[in-house]
Amino acid sequence: MEKRRIYMDYSATTPVKKEVLDAMMPYLTDYFGNASSFHSFGREAKNALDKAREQVANLINAKPSEIYFTAGGSESDNWSLEGVAYSHKEKGNHIITSKIEHHAILHTCEYLEKHHGFEVTYLDVDSEGKISLEQLENAIKDSTILISIMFANNEIGTIQPIKEIGEIAKKHNILFHTDAVQAAGNIPIDIKELNIDLMSMSSHKIYGAKGVGALYIKTGTKLHNFVHGGAQEKRRRAGTENIPAIVGYGKAAEIAKDNMENHVTTLTRLRNKLIKGILDNIPYTTVNGSLEDRLPGNANFGFEFIEGEGILLMLDMLGIAASSGSACTSGSLDPSHVLMALGLPHEKAHGSLRLTVGDFTTEEDIDYIIENLPGVIERLRSMSPLYDKIKNQG
Ligand SMILES: *Cc1c(COP(=O)(O)O)cnc(C)c1O
């Protein structure tokens, strides 16, 4: 019998949907042209590129002319920060971000501080992972050129008050970038209702291929180029376009848009069932992140007295693929910067487990986890002297 495998790591990446692969396939074989070429092969590629741009624009209600394809979320984040920093350095050198951003933002900020004389304010978050609008407004100076706050967090799923942040940015005439890699395609976004100037997106978090993404650049936004070379993407992002991946991304965006309501309801229901099942069956357990403003597919638990790595290993033996924010795997003994920013004590942050559901998650998958996780946690805790003591105290 084939071993049961359950994928509960949709926030790390998603499988490519069959319709997406079907859309991509011809562009790896028959329609292989370079979109810049002046012949029928080139035109086929160019038409496909135009269509995908429309599909991605549609997902967020933007104009196709505001969508620029990149090699993924990381490039879109790097481009936004460096592009704005270099093009606005006459105006000022101050950037505001948060402590719980993805490393594609945080490490770029550190680079700008260290090598280019920029000053960065890293906003705190509350125990649910939300920034304070008051703290944001207080952090603004005459030299502030950019606010970059993520739409939704990849570890704990918390969704930020993006509309309000955009209003503050607009009031102070500061550009606003948001890393929407986890949000765009997973929750409805109407860019016209939000004061966003730049927004990063990625294909492989919404059932498209890896290595492709997009940057939304609002019409009229000034920023330096990041990848230099040919005249692709209206001379703003060089490099022969990865047509098959871009076509797949367009298809994935179209599917996400068409199924948004069902996607959100189904994932939220499965996620809530999982959270309830775990909290009901495992003592000394908390949920990290906000219960209201949360990505539909995200569940993040804190299990006291144990380490996330141990949980991952035992779950993997049961065929369950999950993730932990308590990565000793990265060579560091510290829990993730996101969990630390929530103000969790070390011992709580260490026993964290992220389970993310997606479009292929079934009711049976959730049942299997609710059935098996309590035993895993109990076995690990039985090796903890601290847990032993607390149990014996009754
Ligand atoms: C995955 C992710 C990224 C990086 O996107 P890639 O396409 O993998 O480069 C950036 N930000 C967030 C919030 C993410 O979840």
TrEMBL record:
Chain sites annotated for binding pyridoxal 5'-phosphate: G73, S74, N154, Q182, S202, S203, H204, T240
Source organism (scientific name): Romboutsia maritimum
Pathway(s): Cofactor biosynthesis; iron-sulfur cluster biosynthesis
Catalytic residues (UniProt): C328
Protein name: Cysteine desulfurase IscS
Similarity comment text for this entry: Belongs to the class-V pyridoxal-phosphate-dependent aminotransferase family. NifS/IscS subfamily.
PANTHER family noted in UniProt: CYSTEINE DESULFURASE (PTHR11601:SF34), CYSTEINE DESULFURYLASE FAMILY MEMBER (PTHR11601)
GO CC terms of this entry: L-cysteine desulfurase complex
Main location: cytoplasm
Domain Aminotransferase class V, chain residue ranges per copy: 6-368
Family matches, as InterPro entries: Aminotrans_V_dom (IPR000192), Aminotrans_V_PyrdxlP_BS (IPR020578), Cys_deSase_IscS (IPR010240), Cys_deSase_NifS_bac/arc (IPR017772), Cysteine_dSase (IPR016454), PyrdxlP-dep_Trfase (IPR015424), PyrdxlP-dep_Trfase_major (IPR015421), PyrdxlP-dep_Trfase_small (IPR015422)
Signal sequence extent: none
Biological role stated in the UniProt entry: Master enzyme that delivers sulfur to a number of partners involved in Fe-S cluster assembly, tRNA modification or cofactor biosynthesis. Catalyzes the removal of elemental sulfur atoms from cysteine to produce alanine. Functions as a sulfur delivery protein for Fe-S cluster synthesis onto IscU, an Fe-S scaffold assembly protein, as well as other S acceptor proteins.
Localization of this protein: Cytoplasm
